[in-house]
Amino acid sequence: MRDVLISPSILSADFAKLGEEIRAIDAAGADMIHIDVMDGHFVPNLTFGPPVIEKLRPHSDKPFDVHLMIAPVDPFIDDFAKAGADILTVHPEAGPHIHRTLQAIRAAGMKPGVAINPGTPADVVDPIIDDVDLILVMSVNPGFGGQSFIDSQLRKIEAFRKKIDESGRKIILEVDGGLNSETAPRAIDAGVTAIVAGSAVFKGGPSSYAGNIAALRGEMVS
Ligand SMILES: O=C(CO)[C@H](O)[C@H](O)COP(=O)(O)O
């Protein structure tokens, strides 16, 4: 299997101990920290926003990989930059002008990412592939952790692998939703370079995190 980045989603962490949880996954070998921001409007769930991210920032030096499931996005871009986001990923459906939004994210000093829902075709990325540093393939409908991986998204990952290789650009191809030790190898074979996992990392509590992360990389767990 190729090397992959593991980005644990703190959606499955103990929200009463978020700082502690981030320190634990950092120490357990996480490459990035995946932070899901939901507004109860773009997706049917609510999490948190820039003030919480700012308080979490001192707990890890690893990149904060922030996935915005909010609409609109543009009024909040500077707030996420100030809070310490490194990668800011948005949905084309959040509108109204995805190209302008990606440029604004880069201008604010962050890496722009685009998130693709299970029902959204891969071609939506064609006009903006030069403007993104990360493509996030949602392998569940966004909003909740603990859902099952949607197999049809493997074909989309393969399509993105081809598009990225043809672009000649260094773009992280990330997958999110239902990843575990059975689905992760299939996503890696299809071409992803980063895996987001919530339930599969946080199950069993802090003493299990290192083994859970290693299992997603396809390493033997002792
Ligand atoms: O973005 C998300 C949901 O919108 C979560 O990051 C994702 O679903 C991870 O959870 P799990 O690994 O439990 O499926």
UniProtKB/TrEMBL annotation:
Its EC number is 5.1.3.1. NCBIfam families: PRK05581.1-4, rpe. Pfam families: Ribul_P_3_epim (PF00834). The keyword Manganese applies. One of its GO terms (biological process) is pentose catabolic process. Catalyzes the reversible epimerization of D-ribulose 5-phosphate to D-xylulose 5-phosphate. It comes from Henriciella mobilis. Gene3D superfamilies: Aldolase class I. This is Ribulose-phosphate 3-epimerase. It comes from the Bacteria.
